[in-house]
Amino acid sequence: MVSLHEVEDIMVSELNVSKEEVKIYILLLNKGKMSKTEIVYEIGLDIQVLEKAVTGLIEKGTCIEIYGKYEALNPRFAITNMYKMMCYTNNLEVKRNKTVDQLATLLEKPYEDARTK
User: Fold this and answer.
1) Which of 14, 58, 66, 75 is least buried, going by the fewest C-beta atoms within 10 A?
2) Burial (0-12, 13-18, 19+ Cβ within 10 Å), 29
3) Residue 36: domain span
4) How many domains does the chain have?
């Protein structure tokens, strides 16, 4: 079973996303809607790195932007979208991946907790 402290490394290796994309997605997952300024303040990224990472997350179908605020999509959808994009990009067959399923399940609780505060 995937543990919470392994999430970032697993997302980078299994889903072929950047560490910055993972950090932003996890931040949005845990905190809810945030502006670019709030994200920069929380994780200390350069604004250009942030722009590239947020664009990548939106393109992968993992977060949305509404009125200048970014929000993570439900991990069930977001993690699946990341996995499918990785498969399409690398010409791999999209098939069930146990690690990806466990990752999505693990991240659902923090996602729900952030939306019921």
Assistant:
1) 66
2) buried
3) 8-111
4) 1
